[in-house]
Write a structure and sequence with these properties.
The complex is a heterodimer. Chain A is of the alpha/beta class. Helix content of chain A is 39%, strand content 19%. Chain B has 15 helices and two strands. Classes of the chains: A alpha/beta, B mainly alpha.
Chain lengths: 366, 337
């Protein structure tokens, strides 16, 4: 070829070569059959899914990496829905979701049975911006009617009834909900559907419900910002976000009739109290749990893995990591405001982990 | 553009002309140099790639929205309900929100941008015009999410406290200014942030258009005894189509803007005459709901919204470019500023 010594032409050729190289070097999808084991005995595991546990999972992975440098884990918080889709498609080693997979989703799975491993618990709290930061007590049906737009003012008799002595302003309630599809909304609407027949009828339970009233903000941080900015506003968010911003959170009445504040202990209590109704596969909603101290708007967050791991080395690393997370990982969970599993539930999760096999052989032998 | 007329007749081109045969060798190598041919091919492929990408995007979004089209037909465009749980989807609230937020943005931005551009081209001394131009163009470089954050923490509370109450007091009899004043977010706030975001685009293009108006026009007006203001009107009239194009370019940006609007518009799928009420745009609902949309119809409805947005911005931008081009072509030699 008679390529003349032409600087522009050379530059172009270089550019093309670079583009080609970049295309080849683009991140490969993780092979279903574990083609991505890194050299030197190291194992690379990739997970994707729920945004809610992301800070904790990242902390776990970095701490676990320190004691076990051969395990290289990374996690992409793409959202619960994407986590479920990716584990179904087999493009990740584990998925993560705040919602247990539906029966329909489980039917779509081709690569074998999927096991739900609960890791920690989350709580959805009702937060508000009122002059003087009073401590509010809210009955479930009152929350439902506020979000239905039926209770419009803070000095409504039904709010007053549970909050004797609180100076409630004679002002309209500004309602804030999540704009983006989210597990937080799913848990909150699941709770409201259980406590209000009208909610169940008109709105239902889901990640992107059609909110009858109010504003919508993007993300937990958007809801928190909206509540913080605007007086007389009410919103719902994950516990940790309200704590970070030092926003007041309402005590919510549980089925036992007690008004319970969301704390790590009252959330763990909800899981313990629901244990009798929890099926073997751990797919359960623990909103409106029966215990006397249980906070009623709580949920598990799950890691989703295949029961039979195609690659024994990767499967072993994954199971070991999760085992570590359930035991040595709990202090990190508490420090980041995630409620650890209560003892009884952890035993169930351990049994699920012990059932993971590769080629029929259990990965956690004695 | 890939096929300039041959400058000198050669045996090959005479042959081609007589028999009207596509002479690929000549098309590839008008200079007879193989290096040029390679270079030409590469450039042609680059240009072709852009077309292919646009085509592929339209095809992919269209095919992915088939389930939604089948389910709702044209009713999708007029449906007012958006309920993912019950699987009922209508696009009208989003179309309305997109149009209204862009209209508010234009209503604020157009006078502002015209003022900036006229000042820069017709009035400002050069040592002032340079830095002002730079600052206005700097606005275009600020990331959208920064506008959104600033909007949440500064603009929205300011509008809530100092703008909405007086507006309602003065013009409360107009439906546009009825509704809640206790919250900062809503259609008006989104419109204001959009206005700030599109002003650099509109003013930059209008500046180019005005600068392209021949000086002879100004000289003629001044010679007839026109004042500076009257001269400016002559110049503006001359640049009319180009200014319209600039406005449409700004509109295209406003329609597609996502992040800042999502953070400020309130994200509620409703049609309300009030600017103080929350609203929702097509781009915002895509950004909000796409990540967690799992069932097929929901995804398909979202993709169809995307297709609508895509086609509308595509047409708008095309129209704008044509208008701008009709004014600026051939006048670059006499440009001012």
């Amino acid at each position: 070829m008679t390529f003349k010594a032409n600087p522009a032409g050379r530059a172009l050729a270089l550019l093309c070569a670079a583009a080609l190289a970049a295309a080849c070097g683009a991140p490969r999808p993780v092979g279903k059959d574990g083609g991505s084991a890194a050299p030197g005995g190291a194992v690379r595991l990739q997970g994707a899914g729920a945004t809610f546990p992301r800070p904790l999972y990242e902390k776990w992975m970095s701490e676990y990496g320190k004691i076990n440098p051969n395990a290289q884990l990374d996690y992409q918080s793409t959202g619960s829905g994407a986590g479920v889709n990716q584990i179904i498609a087999g493009t990740v080693d584990f998925g993560a979701s705040d919602d247990p997979m539906s029966d329909d989703d489980l039917k779509k799975v081709q690569g074998g049975e999927i096991v739900h491993i609960p890791t920690v618990l989350g709580a959805v709290v009702v937060t508000y911006n009122l002059a003087g930061n009073p401590e509010l007590r809210l009955a479930p049906e009152v929350i439902a009617d506020i979000y239905l737009g039926k209770i419009k003012r803070w000095d409504d008799a039904r709010i007053k009834a549970d909050n004797a002595g609180v100076n409630l302003p004679a002002a309209d309630i500004t309602v804030v909900a999540r704009a983006d599809g989210s597990g937080t909304s799913a848990v909150f609407t699941d709770f409201l559907s259980k406590v209000s027949p009208e909610w169940k009828e008109r709105v239902g339970k889901g990640k992107s419900p059609n909110w009858p009233a109010g504003q919508r903000a993007k993300g937990n941080e958007g809801v928190v910002a909206a509540v913080k900015q605007n007086p007389n506003t009410i919103g719902y968010t994950e516990l940790v976000y309200a704590e970070q911003q030092k926003l007041p959170v309402a005590a919510v009445r549980n089925p036992a009739g007690n008004f319970v504040k969301p704390t790590l202990d009252s959330v763990s209590a909800a899981a313990a109290a629901s244990l009798a109704q929890t099926p073997e596969d751990m797919r359960v909603s623990i909103t409106n749990a029966p215990g006397a101290d249980a906070y009623p708007v709580a949920s598990y967050t799950y890691v989703l893995i295949y029961k039979d791991q195609k690659d024994a080395a990767k499967g072993k690393a994954l199971v070991d990591f999760l085992w570590w997370a359930l035991h040595d990982g709990t202090p990190y969970a508490r420090a980041l405001s995630y409620a650890p599993l209560p003892e009884e539930v952890r035993a169930r999760a351990e049994a699920r982990l012990n059932s993971i096999t590769s080629g029929g052989r259990p990965l956690r032998g004695a | 553009m890939s096929n300039p007329a041959p400058a000198t007749p050669s045996p090959a081109s005479e042959y081609g002309a007589r028999f009207r045969v596509w002479n690929w060798r000549r098309a590839l190598m008008p200079t007879g140099n193989r290096g040029d041919a390679v270079f030409r091919t590469l450039l042609f492929l680059a240009a072709l790639a852009v077309l292919l990408i646009v085509g592929a995007m339209i095809a992919a979004t269209a095919s992915a929205s088939v389930p939604s089209m089948r389910e709702f037909g044209f009713g999708f465009l007029t449906g007012r309900e958006w309920n993912p749980i019950q699987g009922r989807f209508g696009a009208l609230p989003f179309i309305y929100g997109t149009v209204m937020s862009s209209a508010v943005a234009l209503a604020i931005s157009v006078p502002l941008s015209l003022g900036v551009a006229v000042f820069l081209v017709e009035q400002a001394p050069r040592r002032l015009a340079r830095p002002v131009t730079f600052l206005v163009e700097l606005l275009a470089a600020i990331p959208s999410v920064v506008y959104g954050l600033w909007g949440i923490f500064v603009l929205a509370p300011a509008l809530r406290d100092y703008v909405k109450p007086p507006l309602q007091k003065l013009f409360g009899w107009v439906p546009l200014f009825q509704g809640p004043v206790e919250t900062g977010t809503g259609l008006l706030t989104a419109g204001v942030i959009l206005a700030i975001m599109i002003t650099p685009i509109i003013s930059a293009v209008v500046r180019d258009v005005l600068a392209a108006v021949p000086d002879s026009q100004r000289e003629a007006a001044l010679a007839l005894g026109a004042t500076k203001w009257e001269t400016t009107r002559v110049v503006l009239a001359n640049g009319g189509p180009g200014i319209a194009g600039a406005i449409i370019l700004g509109l295209g940006r406003a329609i597609g803007e996502t992040m800042a609007v999502t953070m400020l518009i309130g994200n509620r799928a409703q049609i309300s005459a009030s600017l103080f009420e929350p609203s929702y745009t097509i781009a915002s609902v895509l950004a909000n709901e796409f990540a967690e949309a799992s069932d097929e119809l929901f995804l398909s409805a979202l993709v169809q919204l995307g297709l609508i947005l895509f086609l509308v911005t595509f047409l708008i931008n095309g129209a704008a470019r044509l208008l701008v081009w009709s004014v600026t072509r051939g006048t670059s030699g006499t440009a001012r500023a």
